Design the sequence.
């Protein structure tokens, strides 16, 4: 088990959230994002034995051409009940130096069509050294298992077998960054078939990944053109969602998509941007400390109100909740609170979020008509 699994040992899905429930995709996505931190055997056992779904048997470790090792992790599984494939990328492991190198890689990948994007994230996804993003791997790289190319090819094979199958991509932290970049490269390569079957992008605790030009590229070439939902979950004071800082002088990174912001009572809001987008605010330190104190008290009474699934273990209480009194920004990044938010958030918030793009998914309109509808919504 990973550190993330010791913090939150839940492996079963919430039985009350069944297919057809507006929370279903979000709740499944965060559990998949949390599971991505584990080894292949743990993942397979959870998917097959607990979730009763099909684990897609392929390598879960992917080659990073710049680190020259198998560093990126992710997995895929098939949910027959809703005829959907889930692609999940692993986030930053607490004690993995390569992950931290990826996060703090301040190099910038620039593409004339897409704009400027965080270099470390692009390298983790499968950026090919000396080649960038060729549509097909060069001959000398075909024996390398690069994440984007391996997952794309597997998805294409699966989509050919069933013309009705759709898929979503998800991830927590670094995994969320890779989840939003994956469809961007699909759009760059003109992978229309896959983008038409992309049901949604679900990210949790995701950092900013690109500049304003990349934002426009994603909105025009993925979200609006194919009617793809992009739900970006933010829990309370999570620092990672506010990095790199969105500042016109010191940074060029910016968020986009639909922000689902949840406070420490798991009350959700749909916003364009999370509150205190650069984290700093007047009296922010006092406010964050009081919030962390409330979360410590909450972990004691929440199981009494909501049941045993919400009982937090000693590792979570001692390592995360008490640490949060000094470092609330880091503690609020844990996957446990994101799992709780998808299970306890109001139905109304998820209804609005899930229905925001459905009309466009089945629409044959384009051009000015689509732009008028988007403006009207």
Sequence:
């Amino acid at each position: 088990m990973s550190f993330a699994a010791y913090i939150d040992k839940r492996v079963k899905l919430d039985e009350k959230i069944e297919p057809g429930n507006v929370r279903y995709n979000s709740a499944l996505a965060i559990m998949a994002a949390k599971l991505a931190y584990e080894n292949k055997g743990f993942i397979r056992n959870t998917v097959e034995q607990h979730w009763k779904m099909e684990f897609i048997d392929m390598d879960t470790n992917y080659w990073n051409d710049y680190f020259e090792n198998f560093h990126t992790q992710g997995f895929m599984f098939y949910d027959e009940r809703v005829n959907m494939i889930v692609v999940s990328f692993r986030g930053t492991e607490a004690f993995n130096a390569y992950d931290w190198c990826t996060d703090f890689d301040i190099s910038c990948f620039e593409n004339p069509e897409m704009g400027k994007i965080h270099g470390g994230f692009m390298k983790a996804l499968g950026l090919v050294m000396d080649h960038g993003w060729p549509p097909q791997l060069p001959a000398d790289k075909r024996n390398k298992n690069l994440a984007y190319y391996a997952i794309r090819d597997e998805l294409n094979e699966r989509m050919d077998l069933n013309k009705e199958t759709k898929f979503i991509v998800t991830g927590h932290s670094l995994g969320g960054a890779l989840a939003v970049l994956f469809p961007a490269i699909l759009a760059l390569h003109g992978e229309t078939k896959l983008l038409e079957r992309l049901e949604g992008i679900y990210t949790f605790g995701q950092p900013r990944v690109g500049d304003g030009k990349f934002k426009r590229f994603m909105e025009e070439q993925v979200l609006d053109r194919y009617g793809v939902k992009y739900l970006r979950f933010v829990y309370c004071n999570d620092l990672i969602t506010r990095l790199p800082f969105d500042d016109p002088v010191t940074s060029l990174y910016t968020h986009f998509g639909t922000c689902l912001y949840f406070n420490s009572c798991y009350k959700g809001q749909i916003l364009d941007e999370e509150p205190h987008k650069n984290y700093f605010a007047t009296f922010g330190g006092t406010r964050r400390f009081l919030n962390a104190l409330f979360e410590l008290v909450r972990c004691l009474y929440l199981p009494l109100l909501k049941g045993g699934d919400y009982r937090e273990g000693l590792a979570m209480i001692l390592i995360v909740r008490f640490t949060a009194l000094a470092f609330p920004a880091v503690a609020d990044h844990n996957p446990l609170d994101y799992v709780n938010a998808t299970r306890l958030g109001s139905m109304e918030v998820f209804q609005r979020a899930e229905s925001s793009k459905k009309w466009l998914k089945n629409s044959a309109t384009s051009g000015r008509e689509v732009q008028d509808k988007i403006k009207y919504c």
Residues 363-377 have pLDDT under 50 and may be disordered. The chain has 16 helices and eleven strands. The first strand starts at residue 54 and ends at 55. Residues 164 and 267 are 35 Å apart (CA to CA).
